[in-house]
Design a protein that fits this description.
By secondary structure, the chain is an alpha+beta fold. It has 2 domains: 3-82, Arc Repressor Mutant, subunit A (Orthogonal Bundle); 91-130, no CATH class. Helices cover 36% and strands 20% of the residues. The protein is built from 5 helices and 6 strands, in the order ααβααββββαβ. The protein has helices at residues 3-12, 19-31, 37-44, 53-65, 109-113, and strands spanning 35-36, 69-74, 77-82, 91-95, 101-104, 127-130. The chain has a 3-stranded antiparallel beta sheet. Helix 3 (37-44) crosses helix 4 (53-65). The longest helix has 13 residues, at 19-31. The protein is globular and about 50 Å long. It starts with a helix and ends in a 7-residue tail after the last strand.
């Protein structure tokens, strides 16, 4: 997903296009990694010093609902990144230091489980956490 596609999705779904929402989308585009709500708030308070956590959380929730961002959780904290976009099935390696991700193009689910008897899988999420090459030093 890119900046314009995200803003178009907001507009197409009938949501107001605001400077705060545009800035939030721009932060995710620019950073290209998982961010906590606190990190998003810190970046946004440079331009909007009185911005509240409530506003950030409301917009993160909306963005997740509209598939503008995707979320995961580690160390007891929910984190968000720009949605990968597209419909290709893939998973991620996630650096727990810097929050950057790398796509895994194969699905380990088949090797782990195969096709279970009497059960239809409608979705799954597979993430591997660790440290990227830049954060290992």
């Amino acid at each position: 997903m890119d900046l314009q596609a995200a803003l178009d999705r907001l507009k197409d779904k009938g949501y107001k296009y605001t400077g705060k929402r545009e800035l939030m989308v721009e932060i995710f585009r620019r950073e290209g990694r998982y961010l906590s709500a606190k990190e998003v708030l810190d970046y946004m308070q440079e331009e909007y010093p009185t911005l509240s956590f409530d506003t950030v959380y409301r917009n993160l929730s909306l963005f997740e609902e509209l598939d503008i961002v995707e979320a995961t959780e580690w160390d007891g904290e929910r984190r968000y990144r720009f949605h990968c976009g597209g419909n290709d099935h893939h998973h991620h390696l996630i650096c727990t230091d810097c929050g950057k991700t790398r796509t895994i193009d194969i699905c380990p689910m088949n090797a782990i489980l195969g096709k279970p008897e009497k059960f239809e899988i409608t979705g799954h999420k597979f993430e591997i956490y660790g440290k990227c090459e830049h954060c290992q030093v």
